[in-house]
Design goal:
The complex is a heterodimer. In chain A, 0% of the residues lie in helices and 50% in strands. Chain A is an all-beta fold. In chain A, strand 5 and strand 6 form a beta hairpin. Classes of the chains: A mainly beta, B mainly beta.
Chain lengths: 118, 114
């Protein structure tokens, strides 16, 4: 499996500000995903980020609120813009195999970024 | 669309008890099925997976069998430990489509008491 790191691991932010979350992978991967996990809830896909193209957003998520960059095959950022307390969540990036020797499209997750908006 | 239905929690067991967490799914075609575990304060870890009917995924004493006839992927462990306390998510990845993103169940909180 890939080693995935996220920065920051947690943050406390003020309403109206923005936070950029970084996701770094130790392998080149085609597809990266960003998820949100609201307190006590399951995961909801925000968007799919492919290198060299614009991110594809799921229903209910828009680029102005959650801009995503994907400058290369090992890195992506998610920005949470103009934050409100409702944005308090865990944000997770994930990457999808297959890579060498693995035929199944398995997703692996980063450790998450715990965001609290006051 | 695709969906995953998980046994509602929370589940509380004594150490060495038998664990079953039920998971059923709805999907077109033949999805891949997964169990992920989230320990307190951590991200999601892949626990086990199965890619076709009758496959059994296993890891750390946990097992789940892909049952196409009942569209189920129940998680079992014969003897749980306190360290198994976590939230468990069942998920599927449907074949076809360009993204093949995961569809998650609602999660089941497991607490194991000493």
């Amino acid at each position: 499996s890939a080693v995935i790191s996220q920065k920051p691991s947690r943050d406390i932010c003020q309403r109206g500000t923005s936070l950029t979350i970084q996701c770094q992978v130790d392998s080149q991967v085609t597809m990266m995903f960003w998820y949100r996990q609201q307190p006590g809830q399951s995961l909801t896909l925000i968007a799919t980020a492919n290198q060299g193209s614009e991110a594809t957003y799921e229903s209910g998520f828009v680029i102005d609120k959650f801009p995503i960059s994907r400058p290369n095959l090992t890195f992506s950022t998610l920005t949470v813009s103009n934050m409100s307390p409702e944005d308090s969540s865990i944000y997770l990036c994930s990457v999808r195999s297959p890579w060498t020797g693995e035929k199944t499209d398995t997703q692996y997750f980063g450790p998450g970024t715990r965001l609290t908006v006051l | 669309g695709d969906s995953v239905t998980q046994m509602e929690g929370p589940v509380t067991l004594s150490e060495e008890a038998f664990l079953t967490i039920n998971c059923t799914y709805t999907a077109t075609g033949y999805p891949s099925l997964f169990w992920y575990v989230q320990y307190p304060g951590e991200g999601l870890q892949l626990l086990l997976k199965a890619t076709k009917a009758d496959d059994k995924g296993s890891n750390k004493g946990f097992e789940a069998t892909y049952r196409k006839e009942t569209t189920s992927f129940h998680l079992e462990k014969g003897s749980v430990q306190v360290s198994d306390s976590a939230v468990y998510f069942c998920a599927l990845s449907a074949r076809g489509g360009s993204a093949r993103q995961l569809t998650f169940g609602s999660g089941t909180q497991l607490t194991v008491l000493p």
